[in-house]
C-alpha cells in the first residue's frame, strides 16, 4: 500500500531514514560506537588473506558498488574492482581464493548477477551478497549475506535499496578496517558518530522535499541533462543520471568532471542543464573550474554542495544545499535531491513514475 503517497517511489524515498536505521540495527552499537556483523563468519585470518575485492552488480546496485570501492579502499587499502555483472560473466575474470567477491542486488534474482556469483564461486572466491530479499536465489547461494533491511521496494526506480546498500558498504568498510587495523580509533569513532546522524539529516532534507520541484519544472523540456562530479560525487552523479533517464525519459549523462574536455563539452550549448555535485573538499576547486567551463558555453548550472559553502555562488546559477557531514559520507545525502528531481520531473511529464516504459523491477532474464 502507498500509505497516502501518490507513488511507491515517493513513499520509498521518504522511508529512507527508517530503512537506514534498520540497516544499522544489530550491526552498529550506538553506545559503544562499534560495528559488528554477527552474520559474517570470517575469521581475522580469512580477512587478512584477501589481496583484492571485486564488486559485481547491475544498474543502481552497481552504482552503490562504486561508492563501496571508494569506501573500502579508503578504509582498508585493499584494492577494489567494480564491474557490471553482464560484462564480468562473459570474460575470464582474474579471481581466486584470495579474492573476496561482493555481489550487490536488491532483488537477489538478477540473472547476470547470479551468474557472476556462481562463476566466482567456481573460481574459488568467497562471495558476500549484499541483498534486500531474504530467501532470494542470491541470498541462498552466497557464502555470506548482509541483508540491507530496506523493506519491500515496489517502484522500478530504486531508492531506499540504494541508500541501504551504500550504508552497508560503510559498515562493512569499518568492520574490515577494524579487523585489519587500517583505521585509527579516532577516525573510526568519528565516522560512526557521523553515520548515526545521517537518518536524521535525511529527515530534515525530506521536510523540504517540495523545494526542488521548481527545478524539475525547469528541466522537463530539456533535450539533455548532464551530471558532473569528481570522486564520490561522480559515482552519485551516475546514479542521479540513471534515475532521471529511467523515469523521465530525458537523455542524461554523468561525467567525471575532468573528462569534460575530452569530448562531452561539445554537447553543452546555451541553456543546457548541468547538475554539478561539489561536495568533495579535496577536489572542489577543480569542480568549480569545470563549472566555469560549462558556464562559458551557456550551461544553466545547479550546484549541489554542503551548507555553508558560499564559494559556489559566484559560479553556479542555482544552489541546492545538503547538511554537513564528512566527505566520505556525502553520497547518502547528495543522492536525496537527485532522487526527488527525477521523481518530480517524471511527474511533471505525466509519466508512469512507478512503472517506467520498457523496464521491469527484477531482470531475471539476460
Ligand atoms: O535487483 P537488483 O538490485 O539486482 O537490480 C539491479 C538493477 O536492475 C536495478 O538497480 C535497476 O538499475 C533499477 N531499476 C534502477 O533504478
UniProtKB/TrEMBL annotation:
It is found in: Cytoplasm. Residues 43-182, 215-356 form the SIS domain. GO terms for molecular function: glutamine-fructose-6-phosphate transaminase (isomerizing) activity. Signal peptide: none annotated. Its EC number is 2.6.1.16. Keywords: Aminotransferase, Cytoplasm, Glutamine amidotransferase, Repeat, Transferase. Transmembrane segments: none annotated. Catalyzes the first step in hexosamine metabolism, converting fructose-6P into glucosamine-6P using glutamine as a nitrogen source. This is Glutamine--fructose-6-phosphate aminotransferase [isomerizing]. It comes from Halobacillus kuroshimensis.
